[in-house]
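Objective 1b of the project was to move from sequence-level analysis to a structural picture of ligand recognition. The entry below was assembled by the postdoctoral researcher (A.K.) and checked by the PI before modelling. It contains the amino acid sequence of the target and the SMILES of the bound compound, 2-acetamido-2-deoxy-beta-D-glucopyranose.
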Amino acid sequence: MKIGLILLMSLWITAAQAMYKIGVGIADVTGPPAGVTFMGYGKMDQRGMGIHLRQFSRAFIIEDGNSRIAFVSVDSAMLGDNMKIEVLKNLKPKLPGLYNLDNLMLSSTHTHSTPGGHMLYTLFDISTWGYVPLTFISLAKGITLSILRAHDKLDYGRVFVNRGELHGVSISRSPQSYLQNPEAERAEYEYNVDKTMVQVKFENEFGAPIGVINWYAVHATSMNNSNRLVSSDNLGYASVMFEQRMNPDSLIGKGRFVAAFASSNLGDVSPNVRGPRCQNSGKPCDIPGPQCEVNEQCVASGPGRNMKESTKMIAEGLFGKAFELMNEKPEFEIKGPLRSIHQYVNMAKENVEYTDPYTGELINGRGCSPALGHTFSSGTIDGPGLFSFEEGSTMSSNPLWNLVTNVIPKPTSEQIECHAEKSIVLSSGEFNYPSPWSPKIVSTQLAILGQLIIVCVPGEFTTMSGRRLRKVVADKLCNDLKCIVVIAGLCNTYSDYVTTPEEYKLQRYEGASTIYGPHTLPIYLKQYAKLAIALADGVTLQRGPEAPVFTSEVVSFLPPVIYDTPLSPYGFGDCIKQPPYSATPGDTISVKFVAGNPRNNPMLEMTFLTVERMGSDSKWDIIATDANWETEFSWETKSWFWATSVAEIKWTIPEGTPAGIYRIRHFGHFKYLGGGRLGRYYGATETFKVTEK
Ligand SMILES: *[C@@H]1O[C@H](CO)[C@@H](O)[C@H](O)[C@H]1NC(C)=O
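Corresponding predicted holo structure:
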């Protein structure tokens, strides 16, 4: 008995010593919710008008005795190296020497419904009229805070990996491109998109789960380009569902358990599973363009009746599978050393020699200076561009684009030759005014966590590109060992798309957006093989050419908020549309307040609204904020000249809401005329009753 106990204790001690320290953290990164164009669809008039779901940054840190790795998933369309450099700058005085380019990974979820203007490269900031400091600052502050919170909580714990297949939430949006890949290669896979979900579970030393990172390749484009409310889309709502389940007593973004649904090789993967159809006639189509009637778009939708329902259904699918995986027996526990490596690469200067594995031909390729092809401007079935014309065509019939290409210098003959099949619409690598248009230098990064390998890639890899990359990395690092390689998408740098050379030939949207030319993927395969070998051998690589930081050169044309005046004869925060006297679950309540411009202050870590219930002690308990699915905060200008505006708050009362006395409050800031000082205001509705049905 005694010996048994000692044995047990010594086992326990060894186990404790071998344990990692882990920490998870979440912070708000919501940008200016109104007046700024959303990033992703490139549609200028898709400007924010409020909030449906807040944006969050979710950080996960794992540490052994010697080293640590921080993985951060951010509800944003994309991020640039500037952001990572800024976050490291913020962290340095607080945690000197701990986080650096090598061990910090920033990956965006790729939601298309969040404010832009933070990329600094001109092409990505055109639709927001240039740089939007508030978007950049909100992201930088929140990402930093999420890492600090995760670091603060570092404590002994264990990390497990699980995998499962999920169907019904994704389709290929470029099946024709996929078919260009060699038959023998396609025969190795059952589907034309990846259906495997990989999930990492973090458990504290008492065995209670404290967080998950989930990777499933799908675009966060269930909300389409007509949406004007900030949203983290399907992946973000899956995170919220998971966190609400695990933190039932916390408001969203305030709980202990953190669940990230991070991006992967989603380049050609759409969540709009009903597939593309002509908007009016309902005829099937496959690309934005002339298969539909004039002025009719070819768009994909589903599985729901509208985009909100589709977002919810895709999120439910993702969350359902993820929750199941968390509760199943894990495939393995992550053990062993933690290592990570990062190198900058100037893609426009790389060469690659490779044998085409399928034709046996020896190819001498090089990277090109960035350029986009014609079909880039037509958009995709998830979001047709402003200038839809046939995808795959080489000449634009759109006068506006032809004008743009006339004003902007023509690509050099060297560029045309380098990009081969691409018919260049925008040779973005050749413009540096007012700041560079597209990145030439990208971040490449790799991390080994025992048998889990995270490949952090600087863009949107298509399904097959991701598969080839995973294979190359597994080849170098896994040998016969069981290991899992995941692609972390849109990581550190955003440099558009990456297709296989075969897919590139067809020049659909993804190929037209593969900005370094036909050999982009082979260059990455070579580069990540190099990183893998260096990590395995413990070799330090040179940093590579530094990514440029050019914050001072960027321009901003977005007019600032000058002042706010309250709608006469009211004051800020006055409720001008009261709720009904009573309501029941399932009803949507709408109330209105006299408001200030929400761009004055995005209320990070706070909220523009609360739904409150009177507790038994006659105190008000907050039961929902602007981060909840069932609430919507929207804002509208009543007079541009007087700068008067109104905020509308909607609350769809969820089933199961207890009967009682309720009220809704609104919070915001207004700007004084002259000087730009801000004032705070708040207001409340009259109380109303929620009764059972
Ligand atoms: C977006 O979704 C709505 C339904 O929620 C639909 O009416 C509209 O046509 C869609 N627009 C596009 C461009 O897909």
